[in-house]
Specification:
With 434 residues, the protein is α/β, with parallel strands linked by helices. It has a domain of 167 residues: 3-Layer(aba) Sandwich (Rossmann fold). The protein is built from 17 helices and 11 strands. The strands form 3 sheets. The protein has a 6-stranded parallel beta sheet with strand order 3-2-1-4-5-6, sandwiched between helices. It has a 3-stranded antiparallel beta sheet with strand order 9-10-11. A two-stranded antiparallel ribbon has the order 7-8. Helix 5 crosses helix 15, helix 8 crosses helix 9 and helix 15 packs antiparallel against helix 16. The longest helix is centred in the middle third of the chain and has 27 residues.
């Protein structure tokens, strides 16, 4: 490093995120000597995370200076990197309302976090405060690099790209990293013996090519042959893949996210997805997250917080290290502006793709033309995203409703109007539309 870095973690009061992010930073040789600033508006949670992190730093004598504040502007002063993972309001209460309210009106969205009516209102709640963060970054630390983990990823990143075109940022999601072990099992080949290239839109991408490294042979014929049978026998938590199998069979490409996310963007997903599995995953994830958070709070209060500050598997810190060391290494799946990355979908998008990390930041690896049928699905979602972001930037209720009517899960305009008005009322105080 040529200068002392300052890494700001926004949303640090989310215990697992805050503890894991700091755990990765303090165990990084490259980042020794840095300042880490923890920021959250939830003061009690922020104090717990700060207590645990300070104990971990002191216990192992890490050369890290730790700051903690509920004042975002103070946190951002002299920042060189910002890691953002915020949510608005009580997370799971909103997720439940986003899912259940539209379904009262006959809507068949299967998840409602990133797409469907639920995804629209999630976007309307969370994107404005993230743009406020970006506004502060532009004013206080304009040369800083922003790493976003918040969802809906594609829409957040597109809004940032449009409103703050000079801001350096990347969006990170672990879906590809979490799903790729299935390709290894299907092909009975270790992952380090497979060269996989994947991309699309966040939570809506596929493996575009897969090769055996030892021979250079295309592995897709084997994957297409063996994949459906493998996916058919997957059962239990996180194995909602009936829609993924159908996409593989009909379009010839395998996704890298399960039904719960891929199906958010397809009007007929309800008929092909493993709906029971989707709800099993969501309810299990919700229960696990709440219980894990409660356990972390108890352990920190008992004085054993230092042991909870461990590196997480996310890619934010390796990317920061790569920028600082000009590593030139490849990241398999990141979200960057579509500057010719995928040529047959709109340029005014943020796409998920591999990228090279260097001193300039991140340079997307060009993927070329997307498979035609799947590109059609992406273009529909691009149109929805376009209107969602425009509605937010213009604070337009009319444009927000147009975005809803454009969503592929909508099949009844009258019901959509009723649903929209109820969702507006439920979100009163959290969204600003005129």
């Amino acid at each position: 490093m040529t200068k002392k870095e300052k890494i700001v973690i926004i949303g640090a009061g989310s215990l697992q995120f805050g503890l894991g992010s700091v755990g990765s930073i303090i165990n990084s040789d490259v980042l020794q000597g840095s300042t880490v600033s923890l920021h959250d508006i939830n003061q009690s949670n922020l104090e717990l995370v700060t207590q645990a992190c300070r104990a971990a730093i002191e216990k192992k004598k890490f050369d890290i200076e730790l700051e903690s504040t509920t004042d975002r502007k103070k946190a951002l002063k002299n920042a060189t990197f910002i890691i953002n993972s915020i949510e608005v309001g009580p997370r799971f209460e909103w997720f439940d309302l986003d899912y259940e309210t539209p379904r009262k009106y006959g809507n068949k969205q299967i998840m409602g976090e990133n797409g469907g009516p639920g995804g629209l209102f999630h976007s309307l709640r969370v994107i404005p405060p993230i743009l406020e963060i970006c506004d502060d970054i532009q004013k206080i630390c304009p040369d800083a690099f922003l790493i976003n983990f918040s969802n809906p990823m594609s829409r957040i990143c597109l809004a940032i790209k449009r409103k703050y075109p000079t801001l350096r940022f990347v969006g990170l999601c672990h879906e590809f990293l979490g799903f790729k072990m299935h390709y290894s099992r299907i092909l009975e080949t270790p992952l380090n013996k497979l060269k996989i290239t994947a991309g699309g839109l966040n939570h809506f991408g596929v493996v575009l090519s897969i090769k055996y490294i030892d021979t250079g042979k295309d592995a897709y014929p084997d994957l297409r042959k063996k994949g459906p049978a493998y996916l058919s026998q997957l059962k239990g938590f996180g194995h909602d893949v009936d829609l993924i199998r159908y996409i593989l069979e009909k379009f010839g490409y395998i996704a890298y996210t399960p039904d719960s996310h891929y199906g958010e963007y397809i009007g007929w997903a309800w008929e092909r997805a493993n709906l029971e599995g989707v709800r099993l995953f969501y309810n299990g994830y919700k229960l696990y997250t709440i219980k894990a958070g409660d356990r972390l709070v108890k352990r920190i209060k008992r004085g054993s917080g230092a042991n909870l500050v461990k590196p997480d598997p996310e890619r934010a810190i390796p990317i920061i290290e790569g920028i600082l060391t000009d590593s030139g290494h490849e990241e398999a799946s990141v979200n960057l502006p579509n500057d010719g990355v995928i040529t047959n979908i709109p340029k005014d998008l943020v796409v998920e793709c591999p990228a090279i990390v260097n001193k300039h930041g991140m340079e997307a690896i060009k993927l070329g033309e997307y498979p035609k049928g799947l590109a059609g699905l992406l273009r529909n979602q691009a149109s929805v995203q376009d209107l969602v972001v425009e509605a937010i930037l213009k604070k337009s209720k009319d444009i927000a409703f147009q975005a809803l009517l454009l969503d592929p899960t909508i099949d009844n305009a009258s019901k959509a109007e009723e649903m929209f008005e109820e969702m507006i009322k439920l979100n009163q105080g959290y969204i600003d539309l005129h």
